Amino acid sequence: MGSIYKKSLKLFMVAGLLLVFYFWRPWSCSGVDIQPRRADPIQTLLDGKTGKILGAYPDIPYHIKEEVASRLAQNTCVCLADEETFHVPFSDLLFPRVGANNLAHAFLQNNPHSEKIKNHRAQEYNSFQRRSYSPADVLIVAEANSPLQYPTQGVKVQPLRTIIIPGLGLKQKKRSEYMVYLNATLGTFDVAATVDKVSIKGLREKKMTLSSPQLTALNRQLQFVTYTSTVFHPRTADSIQFGTEGYKSFFTIKVEQKKIPKLYNSGYSDEYNITALVTIATKTFLRYNKLEDLIKSIRQYYPNVTIVIADDNEHPQRVTGPRIEHYIMPYGKGWFAGRNLAVSQVATKYVLWVDDDFIFTSNTKLEKMVDILERTTLDLVGGAVREVTGYTATYRHTLSVEEGGEDGDCLHIRRGYHHVIEGFPNCVVADGVINFFMARTHKMLEVGFDPRLSRSGHLEFFVDALGSLHIGSCDDVIINHASKIHLPWSKTGTEKAYDKFRYSKSNGGMKLVEEIFYFKNRFKCTTSPR
Amino acid sequence: MGSIYKKSLKLFMVAGLLLVFYFWRPWSCSGVDIQPRRADPIQTLLDGKTGKILGAYPDIPYHIKEEVASRLAQNTCVCLADEETFHVPFSDLLFPRVGANNLAHAFLQNNPHSEKIKNHRAQEYNSFQRRSYSPADVLIVAEANSPLQYPTQGVKVQPLRTIIIPGLGLKQKKRSEYMVYLNATLGTFDVAATVDKVSIKGLREKKMTLSSPQLTALNRQLQFVTYTSTVFHPRTADSIQFGTEGYKSFFTIKVEQKKIPKLYNSGYSDEYNITALVTIATKTFLRYNKLEDLIKSIRQYYPNVTIVIADDNEHPQRVTGPRIEHYIMPYGKGWFAGRNLAVSQVATKYVLWVDDDFIFTSNTKLEKMVDILERTTLDLVGGAVREVTGYTATYRHTLSVEEGGEDGDCLHIRRGYHHVIEGFPNCVVADGVINFFMARTHKMLEVGFDPRLSRSGHLEFFVDALGSLHIGSCDDVIINHASKIHLPWSKTGTEKAYDKFRYSKSNGGMKLVEEIFYFKNRFKCTTSPR
User: Which of B33, B139, B341 sits opposite A345 (nearest CB)?
Assistant: First the structure.
């Protein structure tokens, strides 16, 4: 009885202690500072060193090469329209001129709160920059004739995990003792194996020193140095200092979760299964008859493809049919909100955007669009829209951003494209295309359509897509545009209502675009073809 | 007359030639190969060099340090559940065990096409890897004792623009002639200024050589070397080789569009204007009475905040009120589709997600959530949900991915968190939180909710968010959960219908989650608390 009593007592004490630890968890009380990071001490050291390197040789003269120097970014883009250079008939057609819109002026004029808006924008931008800052973007220059060997790129660790740091080494002339040290901020050092004759100080700490009388032993030991990330962050970088007497080098270890893919199971036939790969998305308003024509024409060529319809009519009608998904929105919620909604519902790898007054024909070969998206790094490919007159448009545009300093940057919009695509002679690389395109669904949703743009908007999506989407345009995938040529007296009631709603000359739409470019995207100027 | 005639003729010839050039554009015919990139020749050179560096000192013995070596990724994660170690009362509560789900087995068993599915998944993953490949991720090791000075990080250029390459230099012992060369693949070299006594070959080409009898002159000239990106790509990198006789170094120039911000104009008051900053989003199905209770409770504390409601009822009722946006979806389209839809309509900086059976109370202080999102790098912060019993849940989880080789990786799901957040004692950093959270709208849409998850799903969003969202959880922002404690015979008709729909023991939901983890995210195993 006594021994059972003692055993039970011990068991309960152990259980009690375990309960205490279970709820108290002293080992997990370490706090983490997650304010947007400023430069840490290692960073400051690095900046000083780089500054010295870049400022050398001030006394040797040079001669500026104007045609190259003028192409360098000056951080001072100027908001200027093209001058009309000379007068010939059709000059605007032959030599399209470019207009300029000074956004601050357009958006802030006559606004009593203009100073506050400017300050708010500057604060938000400052926040954005601090949140986007990463030590992985900072300029580092490798010193010449340094005895240090170290990795300059490609070292990464998952948060709270451990890796071996590859490539560390010391190549010094003969001496009695060889020494190196390592410093970190967001992690600690250790070794995965030990080598005789090497002494190590600072194991499992942010600063570690290794020394040995034998250089080859030290170098062998350096092959087993590990870094453990100790501060959780899903995407950051640690600045590492690696030095010996008289020499310092800096490199970065990226701290990142492994990139988890989004793969689509679209079947395993040899040909492209459009039904499994593509969803067609559109938005409709006041044009149910045209929408029905579109659906009929789609079904002629792709009888089983899913069609997603966003609908913000005041009195929505039922749109039914196999594989048709109809979404009702608040009345007049608008164009970009509808586009964002439709794309948010797509479960296939690709989404094809069409307007509700397009008509599929035998030239509307979606397989061609899928083919270029499967075989290249394009994320989005536009086609061509043929008017009833036979005129076919691709609406190819290029977009570029020029730095403008504190007041914001300049956005330059031009017609045209960058390159033809090898292997696809009808296709080019551009930054903006027409409103008939196929895109990787999740990439399109990553960019998103700003739900505030209700009446009109097109290139605003491509501005948001800059740097995210690789965009192409093929002129051999053609869709027809239902005829817009109506004599005014022959338009139906709904057609007149549609025109009135969409094309009304309200200033509201223009002001909103200016706000979006001025505030959201922080431009001070846009230049575009007149 | 004759001179006017001649002038007109000249003018028309010029106009004619210009027309020809306008449509022909011989200068823009250069094609670009945009197939997913494999290693270019410079890359192959680099790999060979790095391999040699990493394989040195094979003869020096070492002793493995087990506790460190065991933490290194082996690429061979194993799908094992915890064994039950010893039996005590409440052992599962005190010592929660972890179960393992072998996804390939669960998803592919009894499937006649299992081989084809496996191959399709492997092909899609291969495509994904090739498309994600960037020379900016490749391991580069800087040689020791090299006379070359060069930038190892931080050099970037916008597509088709020109920059000065900072930090190039040569520090060699005295000799009669000093020489360096530069090689690129996606761009060309030039100089922004010239320096006497330096001769340059290969201006405006992919390989440039500079030489001089005077070292300081050569180094001064190197301060003006420019790189021009000539192949348009929105986000890539060029591997640059910089060498002299007997020495080569490698570095990367990133080719990227400037990151355009998405700033929100939320007014300029000193306090947080919740109406301008936050939109509340929810999805509703068969619980209009609970939805009305939710809306009433919101209006008590936030009378003007916009509420977005996604509704996939079979017979939708009208939900009206100021600043309420009601969206009708196809019947039963589902949970994640509804979440994606609601978030796609939000125009404010932050979105608050709530379930339609939550109730706001005086403890539901949205200002606290906004505060931590404004002041830290968090993208999403969860709160706490209080049941009618008083039990309050935060559902904090950690997620980690362990590499598993060719068959896929392992996903480990555990309860708990990573760190407490400094300055916010009630808040921690985690990877998954409860279904009551506030997030940066555009970051949430970047991740997205997979519209295929119709009945249930929660952590799947956080799995997709890994590496993208910085996630926190604060237990001092509390919302109430409408009572779920009903005796079975007192449930209303709609409550019974809801339970039947949502909690039906169909295998379909489970199979879908397995497919998503197995195929879409390419896991071979998940381990999670039983």
Answer: B341
| CB-nearest partner of B265 from A127, A267, A519 | A519
- Angstrom distance (rounded) from CA A400 to CA B257: 8
- Quote the CA–CA distance of A395 and A390 in Å, as a whole number: 15
Task: State the pTM of this model.
Answer: 0.88
Q: Which residues of B touch A195 (CB under 8 A)?
A: 60-63
B1 has a chain A CB within 8 A of its CB: no
Q: What is the DSSP letter of A423?
A: T
Q: Which residue of A has its CA nearest to B430?
A: A232
Asked if A303 and A324 touch (Cβ cutoff 8 Å), the reply is no
Chain A interface includes B269 (CB < 8 A): no
Q: How far is CA A124 from the centre of its chain?
A: 19
Interface of B with A in 156-175 (CB under 8 A): 156, 158-164, 166-167, 169-171
Strands laid side by side in the A178-183 sheet: A156-157, A247-256, A235-244, A178-183, A207-212, A199-201
CB contact under 8 A, B234 and A376: no
The model's pLDDT over A276-333, given as tens digits with 9 standing for 90+, comes to 999 999 999 988 999 999 999 999 999 999 999 999 999 999 999 999 999 999 998 9
The shortest C-alpha distance from B387 to chain A (Å) reads: 21
Which residue among B192, B234, B520 places its CB closest to the CB of A466? B234
Q: Provide CB contacts within 8 A for B44, sequence distance 6+.
A: none
- Distance in angstroms (rounded) separating the CA atoms of residues B246 and B231: 30
Going by C-alpha positions, the residue among A398, A399, A402 that lies closest to residue A522 is: A402
Instruction: For residue B1, give every residue at least 6 positions away whose Cβ sits within 8 Å of its Cβ, in sequence order, or none.
Output: none
* Domains located in chain B, CATH noted: 41-69+135-256 (2.60.40), 274-527 (3.90.550.10)
Chain A residue numbers touching B409 (CB-CB < 8 A) = 258
> What ipTM does the predicted assembly reach?
0.88
Q: Mind listing the pLDDT tens digit for each residue in A117-165?
A: 999 999 999 999 988 888 899 999 999 999 999 999 999 999 999 999 9
